[in-house]
Amino acid sequence: MNLVGKKVLVMGVGLGLGPATSYFLLKSGAEIVIVARNESNLKKVKKELSGYGKIEYIVADLSTISGARKAVDQSLKKLGKIDHLAILVGNYTDTPIKSLSEEKMESMISVNLKAPIYAVKEALPHLKEGSAIVMVSSIEGTYGHGLDEIVYASAKAGLAKATELLAYELLDKSIRVNAVAPKAMRHDFKPGREWKRSRKLGDIECPPEDVARVITWLLDDESEWINGAVIPVDGGARLR
Questions:
Q1: Which end of the chain is more exposed for a tag (fewer CB within 10 A), N or C?
Q2: What is the CATH number for 234?
Q3: How much is the pTM?
């Protein structure tokens, strides 16, 4: 993969997937800005990955339009432009219908559906022909039938549909929109480790590197004919 000279905004960098995606983007030659609410974690990621390329961070709450706008505006100041957008924001909480509260409902929908759409809305005026957007749905939103996941799975299903609709809406702008759909991921990322030895096909949980590599590929020109797709990245766990 070759992203040399590309400027990528990585939104929603928490544990595991965020650092792993940032790592592969830097290794591919991209310059990146990472965004999240937790500044201490952002500082840690920047320190850990700064030896691989140019990485800056911005503290912002992506669950609001104003927070997404802040992230985009400050990223433009740091990067000069935005070529690609990786939207990793998301969270999981059990939401059994018998004990569902308004707070849990709003939290899951806000983080897993509203935030990614807000991010696209604010970044879109600055994206050009050839730009790519990648979001993170879930196997639970496309194939899932797990217990206690009604709100989480519904929000991720909504994001999967939003991926298709955004790709359709942006066809004439030649901007691609895709999503990955993982199962569970571990949060134990370490740069340069041999992660492939720690999983096998069909595992319910995978190292974040397996998903991060597909995200990076979807931002690269190698995947230029993939558009409006929600790609399962679960090692076949959905088949069990």
A1: C
A2: 3.40.50.720
A3: 0.95
